[in-house]
Amino acid sequence: MKQNFERLLAGLPQFPGWLWVLVYFIIISSFSEFMPNLLLVPSAIALAIGFKQVKSKQKLLAGQAMTKRIQNLKDTVNLADRQSQLMNRYLLENDMQNFQMVAQQLLPKIQFIKEESYQLKGAISPQVYQRINHKADEVKLDAVLQLEQMQIDHKLSASILTEKVISEKAPEIQEIYQNVQKDNKSILEKIATADNKAELEALQESSMQHFNDILNGYLKIKSSPKDYYNADERLESARQALQDFDLDLDETLRKLNESELKDFDVSLRMMQKQNQMRKQEELEE
Length: 285
Hints:
This protein has 285 residues and is mainly α. The chain contains 9 helices and no strands.
């Protein structure tokens, strides 16, 4: 019963003092219309005591809740600090799997610390608030940069491994693979400054995924053709598809290059026109 009452009080808004006084007099005025004067004074005193106790209890519960939130923030900061130290240890040991696992656990805690410390800004000292947020930003930046570097390293390792397999198992498509990788890099650089960059990057990524699906299938069949039906026909179809994809990328790159020459074409036409007009004037003279 007591817990239910405390939950009810905790859920009520904390009114300012003047509002409590206003509500008190409104209630007393309502009581005075039907309550005898003999009972009105004791009722007014009891109501005042009740209001004071409710307000005091609300203040106490709010203080307890604030204390719990601050303690929870401290506990989270301590846990995040230990995880940060553990993450650095894994990094020194080159244990990338555990580093990634701890970093992914740590980042949500960092976000919670920043949001909660902002909410509790009025209850903690400015120095503590600044120190917490500075440390949180520092740890978050380190973790994000390391995770991004891991993704880059993983892509590079996968690319090197794929090229090695191609050179050993399928040298006939090595030139196609190298051309596609080169064109893909050039295309991504070209569209990096486009207004619809995200849309173009998504389309290019989807196209490259199809290319990689065909490439992986080609390498699987080529590694062990006897384990697949119609291996020769499927290899030839896949090789032709890879070749067509390479040609499509060449065409895409040409279009992107041409789009960059619009100013060049306009200036060239204007200059040619000016030269023609100048020659015409010279002839007339």
